Amino acid sequence: MSSTGEKIRIVDLHAYYGESHILHGIDMTIMQGELVTLLGRNGSGRSTTLKSIMNMVGRRSGVININGTETIDMPAHKIAHLGVGYCPEERGIFSSLNVEENLMLPPNVRSDGMSVEEIYEIFPNLAERRYSQGTRLSGGEQQMLAMARILRTGANILLLDEITEGLAPVIVQKLAEVLVMLKKRGLTILLVEQNFRFAAPIADRHYVMEHGHIVEQVDKDELEAKTDLLNTYLGV
Amino acid sequence: MITASHNSFVFLGDFMATIFGINLFALSGQLLVGLINGSFYALLSLGLAIIFGLLKIINFAQGAMYMLGAFFAWMALNYMGINYWAALILVPIAIGIIAILIERFLVRPIANEDHLYSLLLTFGIALVLQGMFTHIYGSSGLPYQIPAELKGGTKLPFMYLPNYRAWIIVSSLIVCGSTWWVIEKTKLGAYLRAGTENPQLMQGFGINVPLITTLTFGFGVALAGFAGVLAAPVYSVSPEMGSNILIVVFAIVVIGGMGSIGGAILTGLLMGVVEGLTKFFYPEASTTVIFLFMVIVLLIKPAGLFGKEA
After folding, report:
1. Residue A56, min C-alpha distance to chain B (Å)
2. Inter-chain CB pairs, A–B, below 8 Å
3. pLDDT (tens digit, 9 = 90+) per residue, B196-226?
4. Which end of chain A has the lower number of beta carbons within 10 A, N or C?
């Protein structure tokens, strides 16, 4: 497996839930160490794009190449083992497990994941509440747990869905710091984000989605020039 | 059970086994019967709870698999000379394999349909099995000897405890207890609990959920097979033994709360004892008391004694 170069390459991706056709031919490439966001309104297909990469949609077609491996026909449980960590929008903290059990739950997908000590150092709240039921945590703590959980597995391609949604500014700030730190370590991150102010300073590139298409690609040094365009697409 | 060794106690019984007008001999005898029935209830409802938890299937074939376990033990002994102790290991494995095939080829194709379909499917399997065994072996029941090592009994202050009956209680407790421990305290159990909540995300973490589901179904049904072997020497081996006990076990699962592992075990034992006590104090109600309990629990706490409120 190459440590540099393309981490995710998507060509002409179509995705369906039952009869409804959600993604209409997505093309996207993400390089190693990049932090890329998917921007767009609700229902534009951003979360579905992440779920399609994880093979969590009804049906999908096209090319999804992860770390050099074609995955379009791969069963869902094998995808994580390519080094992918997925954090769903609803966070997916298990109520029947305590914080530590939640943290230890996903199997390692690579050998160099963060140690539990390191994770508790980054997220001290989790250490304090390690024996609490997972869903008793505050929204922010649950989000940290959902992030910590995939960092422990050694995943180096992160798919993060709306991680700042509904969180207090101080926690959003903390998450931004964590993302910058992960990027410095060379992790590749695909971030679905509503909060443009959170994403703009830390991301390398932005894809803008609308009605299941990618309608615009914006590099970070084009942001100022394309502000008006983005505002139109995002309706801000 | 009246045996010769009772006689020395009858004398003692006249003297002190009657307190407050209650015959302690008879009472402890019924308590024992209750605990034995409760042991079977616990094993069967535990299997149902495990299967319901992960697959969301109400397995109506659980009683038929219990019957199959008893018949397999009888067939193994009479056709192949396989003794009780070997059957106690081999029969649950065989039943587990049958269950795995059922899950893979019959249940999974309809897994995404309404749960009514899987209920009808398992009900159909139960009817087919019961009909098949009635056709071949008749409905009068076959005898199965208590293994030589467990013949006889032990004298206790207020009762005579047959060894085999003690074995039923002990082995059921061991099997139920270790199953509870695996599910609640180990990593594998954490996979099961988490898979119950959000199977899709577990797949996303790289866990082969369909495989775990199949094995869980196999294990849950194997528990019924184990109970069947255990039951062969005490109840007669008959095609109806499964359908008779299953109705009660369903009531117990409802009382305990669908999908609660510890709840299924405790409620199983408890309802056995309640049934036994009723047999002593008011025998006419002993076959209905569990259903009465079910009605009361449904009225007061619809999620069951140990279930989580929806």
Report:
1. 7
2. 56
3. 889 999 999 999 999 999 999 999 999 999 9
4. N
**Facing A105 at nearest CB: one of B190, B196, B200:** B190
Chain position carrying tokens 């467990």:
B150
Q: Which residue among A56, A96, A101 sits closest to B204, beta carbon to beta carbon?
A: A56
Q: Quick one: closest CA in B to A101, which residue?
A: B190
Q: Encode pLDDT of A94-144 as tens digits.
A: 998 999 999 999 999 888 888 999 999 999 989 999 899 988 999 999 999
DSSP class per residue in chain B: ---GGGHHHHHHHHHHSEETTEEHHHHHHHHHHHHHHHHHHHHHHHHHHHHHHHH----TTHHHHHHHHHHHHHHHHHHH---HHHHHHHHHHHHHHHHHHHIIIIIGGGTTS-HHHHHHHHHHHHHHHHHHHHHHH-SS-B--PPPGGG-SEEEETTEEEEHHHHHHHHHHHHHHHHHHHHHHHSHHHHHHHHHHH-HHHHHHTT--HHHHHHHHHHHHHHHHHHHHHHHTTTS-B-TTHHHHHHHHHHHHHHHH-TT-HHHHHHHHHHHHHHHHHHHHH-GGGTTTHHHHHHHHHHHH-TT-SSPPP-
Which among B193, B198, B209 has CB closest to A77?
B209
Say if CB A132 and CB B229 are below 8 A apart.
no
CB contact under 8 A, A54 and B204: yes
Q: Among A195, A56, A86, which Cα is nearest to A147's?
A: A86
Please give the ipTM for the structure prediction. Answer: 0.88
Q: How far is CA B51 from CA A20, A27, B13, B178, B267, in A?
A: 32, 42, 46, 17, 17
Contacts of B37 (CB under 8 A, 6+ apart): B272, B275, B276
Q: B231 CB near a chain A CB, below 8 Å?
A: no
Rounded to an integer, what distance in angstroms lies between the CA atom of residue A140 and that of residue B15?
A: 70
What does pTM read for this prediction?
A: 0.85
Query: Looking at the predicted structure, is the pLDDT value of residue B2 above 50?
Result: no
Tokens encoding B22: 């209650």
CATH architecture observed for domain A1-83+159-164+196-236: 3-Layer(aba) Sandwich (3.40)
Rounded to whole angstroms, the Cα distance separating B288 from A10 reads 63
C-alpha to C-alpha distance for B247 and B294, rounded to whole angstroms: 12
Residue B261 pLDDT more than 90?
no
Residue type, A5: G
Smallest CA–CA distance, residue A83 to chain B, in Å, is 10
Which phi and psi angles does A12 have, rounded to 5°? 50, 55
Q: Is the dihedral of CA B14, B15, B17, B18 positive or negative?
A: positive
Instruction: List chain A domain ranges.
Output: 1-83+159-164+196-236
N- to C-terminal Cα separation, chain B: 45
